[in-house]
Specification:
Length: 200
DNA sequence: CATATGATTCCA
DNA sequence: GGAATCATATGA
């Protein structure tokens, strides 16, 4: 397999609500293609963040230094630091100023990922792909970092988002999506099907 | 300027 | 179970 097997998605691919974008990204590929550094992972878990009206979305703060790319045009990377140590990688979508984005929460190593390096968990995905805040605002429709659409079918599970308990009624919205067949989802899918996970 | 906290991970 | 660790957002 070469990078040619994973063509970049065009801008139009990103012009949709985060709910649909998040679902579409399950099974899609995230590719880093730079001279001497080719990495590919298969996305298996995502979450939708839906703009200023979503109490869990950073866009609720309005236009600030941090939300500049989140509130920018679709098809670009929104990368932020959480808990002072972990970078989180998001795909901005829908339309310029909408504040919609999809958090990539977990992936499966495909190519160029160091052996033993895990990709389950948003901080780990970013680290495995070498994504830092330096990539914030990066255009995702071409090299060096891009998304390649899913090939084939995927059975997608749905659950509430993780780590957003502070968001009131929005904490329970079923805006997390994952590949039911993947062993690399960051949390047990059991929490997903409404059976509860013993917490919260 | 001061302070609280987080879209998490790692270790005990 | 709890600490780590710092940029951001918010309020004085």
């Amino acid at each position: 397999m070469t990078v040619a097997s994973y063509p970049p998605a065009p801008r139009e691919y990103f012009l949709r609500d985060a709910r649909y974008m998040a679902r579409a990204l399950v099974g899609a590929w995230l590719v880093r293609s730079a001279p001497g550094d080719v990495r590919v992972v298969r996305i298996v878990e995502t979450e939708a963040y839906r703009g200023p009206g979503d109490a869990a979305c950073h866009a609720r703060a309005g236009l600030t230094r941090r939300t500049r790319t989140l509130l920018g045009p679709p098809g670009f990377a929104y990368v932020f630091l959480v808990y002072g140590r972990h970078e989180c990688f998001n795909v901005v979508c829908l339309r310029d100023g909408s504040g919609h984005a999809v958090l990539i929460r977990a992936a499966e190593p495909v190519t160029g990922i160091a052996r033993g390096s895990r990709c389950d968990g948003p901080g780990r995905v970013a680290r495995a792909m070498g994504i830092t805040r330096a990539e914030d605002g990066c255009d995702l429709t071409g090299q060096p970092l891009y998304v390649s659409p899913r090939q084939g079918r995927v059975s997608v599970g749905v659950s509430a988002r993780v780590g957003v308990a502070y968001a009131g009624e929005f904490a329970g919205r079923p805006w997390r999506f994952f590949d039911r067949a993947s062993a690399h989802v960051s949390r047990p899918p059991a929490s997903a099907i409404g059976l509860g996970n013993g917490k919260e």
